[in-house]
Amino acid sequence: MKPQTNRVNLTAGRVDAFTCPSDKAQAFLWDTDTPTLALRATPTGRKTYVFEARLHGSTIRINIGTLADWPIKQARTKAQGLKMLVDAGTDPREVERDRQTAKASDKAAATAQAVTVGDVWPRYLEEGKPKRKDAFKPRYRADLETMAAPGGVKKVRGQGVTRPGPLYPLLALTLSQVNEDSLKSWFDAEAKTGKHQATRALMMFRGFMRWCSARPEYRSMIDRDAGRAAAIVESLPQVTKRTDCLEAAQLPGWFAGTDKLGNRTIATYLKALLITGSRREEMAGLLWVDVDFRWNRLTLADKVDATRVIPLTPYLAQQLATLPRTNEFVFASNAKGGRITEPRASHGKVMLDAGITTLTIHGLRRSFSLLGESAGAPAGAIAQVMGHKPSATAEGYRPRSVDALRPYLAQIEVHILQQAGVMFDAQALPGALRVVAN
Questions:
Q1: Coil, strand or helix: which one is 233?
Q2: Burial, 248: exposed, middle or buried (Cβ in 10 Å; 0-12, 13-18, 19+)?
Q3: Is the CATH code 1.10.443.10 the one for domain 248-435?
């Protein structure tokens, strides 16, 4: 450090009067009271206090602040504190860097703690997906949106406006607030309206928490196991596996009931579920372009794979051939989306007419499986037609071609029609069908 010859006792008057010559880039006025403190001036008139000292054989200079921001007394105190660090062998610049780093870290942590479920939820809808899938299925994505909807929208059916979805209250929580206590409080409140609906919402939210925990930017903010806490699990309704299905003796009444429906589209839809064992959404979304009457094939959207192709059996082919073609969907409807969305009311009429007390739409799928077994079809063929995962087949997974499946599905269809007492002539004109008593 060069000796400072321009050294005075800094006073307000001397500080105000000090200027930098126009032929110099900067000029210094050193303080006699605190030797490491100087006033630096530039030709532009800017004046700042600086600290200068020797550390480990090198000169370090640190800017303290402008004349307007730092009175002389505070500047001296600051310089004296910096000198104490230097005398202890500590570089004040490193101390300041550490302070700024800690400050930035605290700020980032505070910002992270402010991230709410509602901030992240839209990203989850766009980027979230189930295992081994590229994206959510449209139906499940729609359910997620409905579950978190704010409500207040005019009802499509009935009077009034919609209620907020079960997940909507959780959107206001920060990710760090999602814990056992907050989820238990939320679940108990939602369960008062509907315990099973609240349980389904919880399962959906568990998926959101798993997704967050798999991302570095959210992982430290959320407890992915909060939804599995004992206090919550104990409140869940007992899961009972449904076993409802059509018995052989009920088939005549069920078929007769479907034929009495005033809407042939919904009647054929229900029969198609029974004859193919398809999931309700797979069949509801069937397009005319996916019905091949020439080679007798149906291409269905599949839950496991993107699509699956199954044989189109004679009776079902005749039923489909007689349906009106009002839009792209085979099972067209005036409802939003242009296709059947809710078949339960119509199926309830069929059950009432047939004297059947309990049979869900999914029960038709179970009925196909059981009737297929009684028809003598191999378990693997039944599972493949239904679109089950390979591990679900009882005989080991041996995928068959459509032509190899065709005789088995035709065998099942014939068995179902015989049990139902439906007289069917495959050579008859479409619609030449009748139900007879056994």
A1: helix
A2: middle
A3: yes
- Confidence grade of residue 388 (pLDDT, cut at 50, 70, 90): confident
Q: Alpha carbon 235 to chain centroid distance?
A: 24
Q: How confident is the model at residue 393 (pLDDT cuts 50, 70, 90)?
A: very low
Both ends of the chain: CA-CA distance in Å?
114
- Looking at residue 155, its pLDDT comes to 72
User: Which of 369, 431, 146, 339 lies closest to 245, judged by CA?
Assistant: 369
φ, ψ of residue 274 to 5 degrees: the values are -70, -40
- What Å distances lie between residue 15 and 51, 75, 82, 221, 353, CA to CA? 16, 12, 21, 52, 103
Closest CA to 166 of 194, 141, 139: 194
* 59 vs 161 pLDDT, higher one: 59
Would the pLDDT of 107 be above 80? no
Lowest mean pLDDT among 255-264, 284-293, 339-348, 393-402: 393-402
d(CA 164, CA 158): 17
Mean of pLDDT values over 366-370: 94
- Report the C-alpha gap between 38 and 79 in whole angstroms: 9
From 281, 282, 262, 283, select the one nearest 271 (Cα to Cα): 283
Q: Where along the chain do its domains lie?
A: 7-112, 117-233, 248-435
- The helix (H) or strand (E) run that includes residue 107 is helix 92-113
Condensed to tens digits (0 to 9), the pLDDT of residues 188-218 reads: 999 888 888 999 999 999 999 999 999 888 8
* Four-way CATH pick for 7-112: 3.40.50.300, 3.40.1080.10, 3.10.50.40, 3.30.160.390: 3.30.160.390
159-186: string of b/e by CB count within 10 Å (b at 16+)?
A: eeeeeebbbbbbbebbbebbebeebbeb
